[in-house]
Each structure stands twice: as C-alpha cells, then as structure tokens.
Amino acid sequence: TTAREVEQKLEHYEVDESSATILDTLSIERGYSRRSSDNIYYVAAPDDLDAIVEKTRQFLERHDGKLRLSVDSVTEMAYYADEDRAFEATKQILELLDEFDAVGLFHLSKEVHDQETLDRFRELFDGVVDLEEDGTVTTEF
Fold this sequence. Notes:
By secondary structure, the protein is an alpha/beta fold. It has a two-stranded parallel ribbon with strand order 1-2. Helices cover 43% and strands 16% of the residues. The protein contains 6 helices and 6 strands, in the order αβαβαβααβαββ. The chain is globular. This is ATPase involved in flagella biogenesis. InterPro entries: DUF7090 (IPR055516), P-loop_NTPase (IPR027417).
C-alpha cells in the first residue's frame, strides 16, 4: 500500500494522521514521488518481506505505550512474495507483537485464497473477524 492510499483512508475514517506511522511498500518500486515526513517510512519493494519485518521491529522499538499495527494486507504480501514467505513474515511480525506487548490487525482476502490457505493463516491468530459483503460480521476467539 502507498502512503497516499493510507493517508486517504485515515482521512476518510477521521483518524488523526499524526498518530499513525505508515510503511509504504509500493512507491519506490513504482517510481512514485516520496513524501518527506517523520511518520512515513519506505521499503524498496513489496516482496522485501525481511525489510517489512525489520521496519516493524524498528517501529515497535521506537515507540512507547500500547501500540497497534495494521497489516494491509497479508494477501498483497502473498501476491508479491508468495504464500509461504508471507506466512513466515506474518509469524515473525506476530512474534514481535508478542515481544512488545502490541496488538495487530491482519487483513486477508477470502476471495483470493483457497480454504486451505485461509485455515493455515487463521491458525496463527488469537481471533478472526469475518466481514461479509452483506454486512454480516462474525467473530471467532
């Protein structure tokens, strides 16, 4: 996701942009201009999952308090890298969240992955929230 896309989402949901730190994984690879900001970081390519994990570690080390992380999305990580690498990166990020007593929200598209892949990823998480097109929300903890 690009920083611009995240900023648009934050504005749409009326979230104070200064309270968010953004990791842009696409702009450099696509040749987009990069915005200078204390709260926007970049990795060279969306398939550089090691860099994504390392930037996540740096974010957690540099900030205090109860931290929240949103990975938007695991599906894109799998698209650019592959499912096995995305799975391993997700596990590493979850270990970091545990180490730093932070919480995470990981987005995974049911429309893209087969049931076996969905089940594999679901096993990593403490809870799952399913959002259906008709507005139905189900949770499993």
